[in-house]
Specification:
The protein is α+β, with helices and mostly antiparallel strands and 425 residues long. It contains 15 helices and 16 strands. Strands 1-5-6-11-10-9-7-8 form an 8-stranded mixed β-sheet. Strands 13-12-14-15-16 form a 5-stranded mixed β-sheet, with helices on both faces. Bound molecules: adenosine-5'-triphosphate and magnesium ion.
């Protein structure tokens, strides 16, 4: 049997990894700029946690979780998302009681979905969660942060879709109203939607099926059953975004797949990735902490999909920091080995990504390796250089005469060259 990675589980090779790093660096920098601190959470949690937070009627819990029973007969699941764990950890460690928290996390999530471009069974998210702030300021803050990340990455053309689900009371009232309406039109719905009328009627609103969409077009609208308070909250969020010059569109059918959202929900979408157009999604979930056994704690957050963002960076050919070595040190002769290693350490300490040749080979073979490594410069150390405490510096990319330099001169020369690297982040 030939061993291969499992369906939907991918290897991220170095070129793609460089794009990932760019995204994660930009996201982390933005999160820290907004005062968010990192939290690491387990990849595996009690299955019950996701049933009680994401919701049993959602696709994620009903169909997509990797759930199993371990040797101690504990029911557990690979986490399908990060918010539930974050809330669980916040309650468990007393981070949420009478205080504010701004947290960020990143890492793999697992959902048993049908794999396709931009949709995998192991995928990666960067997410933020803010607790203890019920006012629109915090909704605006997390959306502004996501916009700042796109700016930092140079990503253009993303659309911000915004909606409100109102308070839990508005949401419940609306859900019943919508269910009544859908029951009246049950025969015109597709099979999936028909099932959801009873289990999760809000999800019918974001169906992609043309028959269902036709019915939904005439459905009662959430906006019409908002309380004055919920309406004011939403209007303040919209005004805040306007004030920051962040463009948005109102999508009254945006409901999000998870049960726990209230008030503001949003998605950043692109038309560049086919059906997998959502790159970031989030919103307010004021009821979740209490639902999981904590107190009444307001919360808002988002999660972005690293794979989809990496695809966008690739398509737009946006620059990423080069992770290839900058210098390749060629050497020959057992006498030269200690000096080659020492010089290598000095170059690295000076911040130069440096490969010291290993595996022997003629200088010609070593130059070939140097070229393939992506380095711009080769340094050459042979018995003559060793004797005179010098190195040969050779450009691998430009026709320039080879030069004989002391190690200090070589360091100064290479340091100056690297200092003008335009996209080093
Ligand atoms: P979709 O509608 O595309 O299924 P979702 O609503 O299930 O997305 P969320 O649970 O909100 O997604 O997760 C936030 C983000 O994580 C998504 O916007 C997307 O960028 C990314 N994401 C979700 N599921 C996957 C997946 N299976 N593969 C890759 N990225 C994913
Ligand atoms: Mg999904």
């Amino acid at each position: 049997m030939r061993l291969q990675s499992l369906r939907g589980f991918r290897d991220i090779l170095p070129d793609e990894a460089a794009r990932w790093q760019r995204i994660l660096d930009a996201a982390r920098a933005a999160a820290e700029a907004y005062g968010y601190r990192q939290i690491h959470l387990p990849l595996v949690e009690a299955t019950e946690l996701f049933k009680r937070s994401v919701g049993e009627a959602t696709d994620i819990v009903a169909k997509e979780m990797f759930s199993f029973r371990d040797r101690d007969k504990t029911d557990m699941s690979l986490r399908p998302e990060g918010t539930a764990s974050c809330v669980r950890a916040g309650i468990e460690h007393g981070l949420l009681h009478n205080q504010q928290q701004r947290l960020w996390y990143s890492g793999p999530m697992f959902r048993h979905e049908r794999p396709q471009a931009g949709r995998y069974r192991q995928f990666h998210q960067f997410g933020v969660e803010a607790f203890g702030m019920a006012d629109p300021a915090c909704d605006i803050e997390v959306i502004a942060m996501s916009a700042a990340i796109w700016r930092a990455l140079g990503l253009e053309g993303l659309t911000l879709e915004l909606n409100t689900l109102g308070s839990p009371e508005c949401r419940t009232r609306y859900r019943e109203q919508l269910r009544d309406f859908l029951r009246e039109h049950i025969d015109a719905l597709d099979a999936d939607a028909r099932e959801r009328v009873e289990t999760n009627p809000l999800r019918v609103l974001d169906s992609k099926h043309p028959d269902t969409r036709a019915v939904v077009a005439d459905a009662p609208r959430m906006a019409d059953s908002l309380s004055a308070e919920a309406r004011a909250h939403f209007e303040a969020v919209c005004a805040g975004l306007d004030g920051l010059g962040i463009a948005w569109t109102h999508n009254s059918n945006l409901v999000r797949g998870l049960d726990y959202y209230t008030h503001t929900v949003f998605e950043w979408t692109t038309d560049q990735l086919g059906a997998q157009g959502t790159v970031c999604a989030g919103g307010r979930y004021d009821g979740l902490v209490e639902q999981l056994g904590g107190g009444e704690v307001a919360a808002v957050g988002f999660a972005m999909g690293i794979e989809r963002l990496a695809l966008l960076l690739e398509q737009a050919e946006l620059p990423v920091a080069d992770s290839a070595p900058q210098v390749y040190l060629c050497w020959q002769g057992d006498d030269c080995l200690p000096a080659a290693q020492r010089i290598g350490e000095r170059l690295r300490a000076a911040g130069l990504r440096t490969v010291v040749n290993a595996g022997g080979g003629s200088f010609k073979a070593q130059f070939k390796r140097a070229d393939r490594s992506g380095a711009d410069w080769a340094l050459v150390l042979g018995p003559d250089e060793l004797a005179s405490d010098t190195l040969q510096l050779k450009s691998l990319r430009q026709r320039e005469p080879q030069r004989t330099l002391t190690v200090d001169e070589a360091l100064a020369q290479l340091g100056a060259d690297v200092a003008i690297d335009p996209i080093a982040v």
